[in-house]
Amino acid sequence: MIKLKEIPTKAPKGLEKEDIKRKTDRMARRIGHLQHIMYAEKKHNFLVVFQGMDASGKDGATRKVFAYCNPTGIKAFPFRKPTEEEFAHDFLWRINKQVPAKGMIQVFIRSHYEDVLIQRVHKWIDEETVNDRITAINEWEKHLERDNDTTILKFYMHISPERQKEKLQERIDDPGKQWKHNDADWKEADLWKEYMSAYEDAINRSDVPWIVTPVDQRWYRDYFIAEQVLKEMEALQMKLPTFATLKPKD
Q1: CATH number of 9-235
Q2: Pair type for strands 150-158 and 74-78
Q3: N or C terminus of the chain with fewer C-beta within 10 Å?
Q4: CA dihedral 181, 219, 164, 69 (to 10 degrees)
């Protein structure tokens, strides 16, 4: 049973920031190389989910970890408030349109879990609907793994409330970040306890495990995520196709 309050939001002591940043860059380069092979081989695909509170670094992690990937082989999609058309369908309808094809990496910035998080916290849905949706999510993720060889990596961006408020304030104080400011983010931050309860429940009821990621320090966040992504990509033992492998079987 995962209890978020028992998991650190900061890097372990004793790490050297500049050393970690160099290691992250090397891993990001290797991820870019393997993404090239994945795109060419077209046997596997990756779905990377970044889910967390506002200002937890979802966009930043995407830029850093996949910095050396070829744009033709990777897509990122930010899930925002559903449109009128999306509201008129089941909650997974808009998600299905963004799943990765063979050879592709797809990054979800927020995800299908919004529908058991924000809607639950604001009581826009009842608990029976929450249960039905969690069951549907588990089945949907298993379907992707089983029927399309999709590797799913779900990162919960574990930020402290103190650090979140610092980052939200930066969006007011720093002219270069003011475009990110949204008054509603502060209102959502006031519901911290309710969100933590919803996140913890969703994490613990997920069949595909979540990776709780310390994000208070951006340099460690990037390293932590890159290490997990690279490990899963290496495990696929991908190879560039050759004439021999491309030749149709008789």
Answers
A1: 3.40.50.300
A2: unpaired
A3: C
A4: 50
